[in-house]
Amino acid sequence: KKERNLMSHDELFAKILKSQQDSGLGGDWKFVDSFFSFLRRKTNLLNNNDGVQRIQQIAIKHVQEAEKEAKRRKIEKKKEEEAQKSAAAAAAAEPSSKDTKADTSASEQEDKEDNEKPVGNGGKTDKYTWTQTLQEATVLFDVPQTLRSKDLVVNIDVETLHVQIKGQEPLVSGDLDSKCSPDDATWTLETEYGKETKTLCIYLPKFNKMGWWKTVMKGDPEIDTKKIQPENSKLEDLDGDTRSTVEKMMFDQRQKKMGLPSSDEMKKQEALQNFMKMHPEMDFSKAKIS
To answer: Is the pTM value of this prediction over 0.85?
Structure first.
């Protein structure tokens, strides 16, 4: 029944899209504009910042899905071409068992190397997970849910990093494997709904923005930077908790660059607006969000 409903929705959307294309008045993008016009007029989804944020996240998700599908089709096409070549070669000459074994070993080795590509261009140790772009590295620690910012000691220098919960052994303390720019470095303590721990996020802008880090701290496990493929690095490669944290971080960074409020600030503003609606008798002219 679910499949039949899905098919009927696809058929309905296809008819609407075709009518837009046949009209010659904008085609595909006119269809998108009409869809958002419908949402604006018939729903409340676009009436607050949270709705806009969720729509942005949905759009990003489908863009990533489209890229993933395109990559899968490319791989399937390549496999089909290789199968055709193999069939042609087999018709020309019967391969020896030695050649077959060598081809199989090479294929298995290639698959193994593909699986070893760094997730998020970074890695994972027993204490933290890290990802990176050419501009910065992000280090994520799981810490107790009851922890507050004042319970942490985070010292970031050009060549060293010290992270400690007060009264406990340091989570990390020592030399960075590569230099960072401490003046632009920041850290936040994130709380995520449904997660039993908080996430300490440390952002380390790179001193050299043209190179990949093979590890964060000297002595920690290293990744093979030759296997990094930035064009194929997707959020979908991360586990659920890490992905949620990185998505929130990326959204907040985009908002900051545009001079707009972060996701936490947007929630506070929305909560204040709702409270104001519930108490119109109160004067909020001097209210500020801290």
So the answer is: no
